[in-house]
Amino acid sequence: MFSNYGYRRKGRYVEHLRNWLKHFDLQQFHFIDFAELINQPNLVLQQLCDFLGISFEVNATFGSYNKTSYSSAIDRDIGDSLATYYEPYDEELFSLLGKRFDWRMPRLLAPRTGQGRTTQI
Question: Which of 15, 58, 67, 108 has its CA 20 to 30 A from that of 73?
Fold first, then answer.
């Protein structure tokens, strides 16, 4: 289903990172967890500035822009299939980075048969 356009391959982030690591050291990369950026933007920006060796003077308040609400949920079977497919790639990435990311989005998955509607983001 997802193979026609290379969607699955594009989501195997560890493979892309390994290609970059042929040319750069892992310490030259800084990875930002989007959820942390949303929940603690000043902390994440401070860490980024520390990584870049520049000062961070601003303690700003950030708003939401381009916020999207999904009109339909992802079929639970498809979500489970994708989670199973990506698990070994994600685990390899987490091991390489020494950091875990919570990429599962249960709020976007459709309920199992007989369950109520899921909450949309």
Answer: 15
pLDDT tens across 28-85, in order? Answer: 999 999 889 888 999 999 999 999 999 988 777 777 777 777 677 778 888 888 889 9
The interaxial angle of helices 13-20 and 76-97, nearest 10 deg, is: 30
Q: What is the pTM of this model?
A: 0.73
d(CA 97, CA 99): 5
- Supply the DSSP string of 62-116, one letter for each residue: ----S----SSPBPHHHHHHHHHHHHHHHHHHHHHHT-------GGGBPPPTTS-
For the chain, the structural domain boundaries read 7-59+74-100
Cα 40–89–18 angle (5° rounding)? 85
In angstroms, rounded to a whole number, what is the distance separating the alpha carbons of residues 118 and 110?
6
Q: What is the dihedral of CA 89, 92, 95, 98, to 10 degrees?
A: -40
